[in-house]
Amino acid sequence: MNQERNAPIARTEDPLHTHKSNVAARSAISAAPPLNNLPAPLTTMVGRQAESQHIYDRLLNPSCRLLTIVGPGGAGKTRLALEVGFRILNSHVAALHFPDGLIWTSLADVERIEQAPGALAAALGFQFLPDTDATMQLVSSLRNRKLLLLVDNLEHLVAGSALWLTILQAAPGVKILATSRERLHLDGEWLVELEGLPTPASVHEAGFSRYPAIELFVRTAQATAPAFAPAAEWPTIIEICHQLQGLPLAIQMAAGAVRTYSCRQIANALREQLDFLSATALNTPERHRTLRAVFEHSWVLLTPAEQQLLQQLSIFANGFTVTAAAELAGATPTSLGALADKSLIHRSQAQQFAEQTENELSPLEPRYRLHPLIRHFAAEKLADNPPHQQRLGERHSHHFCQLLAEQGKRLSTAHAARAIHQLRAEHENIRAAWQWAANNQQLDLLSQATPGLTAYYLSQGPVAELQQALQHAVAGVRPLAAKMGDALQAKAIAVLGLLLSRLAEAYNEQGAYAEAAQTAQEAIQLAQNGRHADVEGMSFLQWGRAFFFRGQYEEAQKKLSAALTIALSVRNTALAAAGHTSLGANRLYRGDYVAGSDHFEEALRIYQTLGDEGNILKMRYNMALLLFYSGDFLNARAVFADCLEQYHQRNDQRAAGLLLNNLGAVHTQLGDYEQARRHYQEALANKRALGDRPSESLILANLGLLACYRLDYEAAAAYCRDALQISQTLEERAIMAFAQTCLGHALVGLGWLAEAAEVFGEAVALRKELGQRDPMLEPLAGLAGVFLAMEQPAQAQTYVEQILPHMQNITAAGIIEPFRIYWTCYRVLEANRDLRATEVLTVAQAALMARAAKITDDTLRRHYLEQIAIHRAIMAAHAQLPSERRTESSNRWRQRVEEHADLVEDLENLLRPHREPEDAPHHAPEDAPVNMPEARPTDDAASPAHPSPPNPPGDA
User: Fold this and answer.
1) Which of 291, 771, 888, 929 is the most core-located residue (most Cβ within 10 A)?
2) What is the pTM of this model?
3) Cα 413 to the chain's mean position, in Å?
4) What is the pLDDT at residue 764?
5) Coil, strand or helix: which one is 715?
6) Distance (Å, rounded) from C-alpha 389 to C-alpha 407?
7) What is the distance between the alpha carbons of residues 209 and 238, in angstroms, rounded to a whole number?
8) Residue 68's beta-bridge partner residues?
9) Cα end-to-end distance, the chain, whole Å
10) Closest CA to 458 of 680, 733, 657
């Protein structure tokens, strides 16, 4: 049966069949599968199930007469066409739809369209009569047949498409399934476009090994080298498949190299050597023996103008818009369409995009992209003309540096989401443009693009990439700045100072505070020498932030005040607002709520005047931290949630991660531990993706404390140790102290009291060294609790005595768990029969009730008091006290709370969602300097020096 099925179609005696003979022939084969000459594949096809089903369905559709599978060389067009052919042949519909057979012919070796009828006749199994038009004989032989013609490799014969039109018009029972690198440009042509096989993003993606690109690589590698074991190679295999963009032929070539090279060697070679990939199988067509041969085959089919355009388009790093292609390469929609028709570039679908201020969706400009290997091939052609390559590089850098400058300004407006989307789409082009400007010491371009580059990366990450880009530019500019007497030296010094000030900012965001301080000082020196006050002020700001993040608040105050003074002297309002923000944070974490609030209010006022939507959001939720510390959890949660929604709308990933952490903190305080865990886990994934190590260590410590609340002490200890390791590496001493305190609680839960005492002691010493008096109360209470558990109440009381003078500060900013401190002090005093135990318990209960009173939801308030273990214990113990003693202490506490009521009310008014009028202008005041540094939407706010669930980072 198989032999008969795959035999050539029998040659007829007379090529001009009568209707009667065709009817008889159909009756004879109705009980058997149709005849065919399909070459049986030697391997199982991997992937393409969706495309196969799509083609199968279309070929059974009466409306579809001509279907062309198009795609670049090596995309697997031939293999897919054969797969569909055999699928039809082996189905019950074959005899019904194609009773006269499925006929395969390859035209790869046919040089002219005039030779095509002969190739088809050979496949059909008949000979032409002499002195008769070959096309007419072919058409006559097909006129009354019902069959499927599978015609392979038509790209070089597209100009002769009239042949296929003639066949289809004369033979209504014939359908054609064609493969080509270019569409046939016929009315009624249906298209299926092939691109690369799907590839997973990373090994963390579920089912990554079952992705078609990965499966094809592994199957091919193991067929070539049976001992190949992918288990240790998965990340590199994924990297290779990404480099090849899932192109099947290229994947098979790369996998075939595992007999000689490691996967890492293959991945490295692919970056530089197009000729590295080749096929050695003897049955591989010559045009597919190397990737260069694949692309040369397409190259020679292009017109000179198309060849030149393809070379010029290789200047784009990862796709391009029609506008950019027109500006840089002189492309037109028609010329781009011609390359797209030849499968050399691919058009992305135009995405619909809704701006934050609009209700209707507006389309973004569509993009085209080249396969990386085709781009590599075209770039080699471009490199043959170095002057032209240099001119294109310059135009490319100008275009995308200007884009950075323009869209960077929009990141602080209501149009931030669209700006971020555009910058994301051009990420690789931006990197290439910046690198070209740095390599060629283009001072104007670097100065123009630096604010936008910084704002973009600090919003989207990874910050490490920003750091590397700035370091590269600094290395390029530094020699010019040191070149005495050069006409460009003064400008180079100014640009170098700007770059260094932003580099200090990048170091701060990554927790490299020593490097930030050193870099800021160098920038200050350059700025002072060149009298560039804006750069000097920005550099003092970053120097102050480096001190702040390390908990050195006195030094931070001096540097931040210097930054504010400079900003005011040169009337740089954006820098002044940033200075007020950081000074507010510095005051807040020294326990000075009033001064901190004043600075925040002034920063908010300036940002509202500037129309800086991004920083208005930042100030709203920074100020909401004050509500949070006062125990007004529901109002704080409302502000955090509103800001998070707006940051999502703006596509600001970094700020969104911080808000998720803050919401985790709120839900922890309310006792909703599962919701807190979800927020923390989402925040952790966000920060890891952005490379934000300081925030990562904070969130890990928060998860550790949360695990303690859930009595999962082993998990708590693991989280805290991870947090401690990161914070120690970064010298983030405040987070170190917090992680040590949380680890101490976990160790107590595990019964490792001696170890707990040690880490609590380290936390006390570190808080003391940082001058953080209030946060030091927590590890002191931890030590007291450890010695109480060791049945040493007298020793425990020595630590309580250090806490009692600061009893009024237990609910201050920086205190993570105020009620754990109260409860520990009460238990120690009670164990020592100290009469002050009653007062401590009464004060604790009054503070607890004051916070509960702010929870307006009855169910939540009851949960807050009854479900949180320490709260429940305080309420139960207090209920057993004599009533007269409860009243006396409660009155004293209530008086203290009322003293702060006005501050809290002012904050609540300020934090109502800010909405500008519809026609409100969004521009700087007329007296703002033209060269004002861009105020980024995600920096220089309160990133706490001792973060925790009730003290989350506030620097969105």
Assistant:
1) 291
2) 0.73
3) 21
4) 96
5) helix
6) 27
7) 9
8) 178, 191
9) 72
10) 657
CA quadruple 195, 197, 201, 202: dihedral positive or negative? negative
- Residues 96-111: b if buried by 16+ CB within 10 A, e if exposed: ebbbbbbbbbbbbebe
**Complete DSSP assignment for 211-253:** SHHHHHHHHHHHHH-TT--GGGTHHHHHHHHHHTTT-HHHHHH
> Do residues 267 and 291 make contact, with C-beta atoms less than 8 angstroms apart?
no
Output 814 or 89, whichever has higher pLDDT. 89
pLDDT reported for residue 294: 79
Average pLDDT, the chain: 83
Residue type, position 377, single letter: F
Bridge-based pairing state of the strands 367-369 and 346-347: antiparallel
For 662-676, letters b (16+ CB in 10 Å) and e give bbbbbbbbbbbbeeb
Are 333 and 325 in contact, with CB atoms under 8 Å apart?
no
The pLDDT tens digits for 595-629 are: 888 999 999 999 999 988 888 988 888 888 888 88
b or e along 333-357 (b: 16 or more beta carbons within 10 Å of the residue's beta carbon)?
eebbebbbbbbbbbbeeeeeeebee
As a three-state string, the secondary structure of 775-815 is CCHHHHHHHHHHHHHCCCHHHHHHHHHHHHHHHHHCCCCCC
Range with the poorest average pLDDT among 313-317, 357-361, 406-410? 357-361
175, β-bridge pairs: 148
Residue 31 makes CB contacts below 8 A (sequence gap 6+) with: none
Tokens 């990862």 correspond to: 318
Distance between CA atoms of residues 557 and 567, nearest Å: 15
Task: Tell me how far apart the alpha carbons of residues 375 and 890 are, in angstroms, rounded to a whole number.
Answer: 76
pLDDT at 562 over 90: yes
Per-residue pLDDT tens digits for 774-821: 889 999 999 999 999 999 999 999 999 999 988 877 877 678 899 999
Give the burial string for 386-403 (b: 16+ CB within 10 Å, else e): eeebeebbbbbbbbbbeb
CA dihedral of 228, 233, 236, 240, whole degrees rounded to 10: 30
* pLDDT the model gives residue 308: 94
> Are 249 and 195 contacting, i.e. CB atoms less than 8 angstroms apart?
no
| CA dist., res. 424 & res. 649, Å (int) | 15
Determine the pLDDT at residue 260: 84
Q: Are 738 and 946 in contact (CB under 8 A)?
A: yes
Residue-level pLDDT at 364: 66
At residue 235, does pLDDT exceed 50?
Answer: yes
Contacts of 83 (CB under 8 A, 6+ apart): 41, 45, 48, 52
pLDDT band at 367 (very low <50, low <70, confident <90, very high): confident
**388-408 pLDDT, tens digit each:** 999 999 999 999 999 999 998
Q: Name the residue type at position 160.
A: G
Whole-angstrom Cα distance, residue 380 to residue 295? Answer: 12
With contact defined as beta carbons under 8 Å apart, do 857 and 864 qualify? no
Q: With contact defined as beta carbons under 8 Å apart, do 698 and 741 qualify?
A: no
H or E element: which one contains 193? strand 189-193
- 352-353 vs 189-193, strand pairing mode: unpaired
pLDDT band at 287 (very low <50, low <70, confident <90, very high): low
Q: How confident is the model at residue 136 (pLDDT cuts 50, 70, 90)?
A: confident
Residues found in the chain: 956
DSSP code, position 128: P
**What is the rounded distance in angstroms from the CA atom of residue 501 to the CA atom of residue 470?**
10
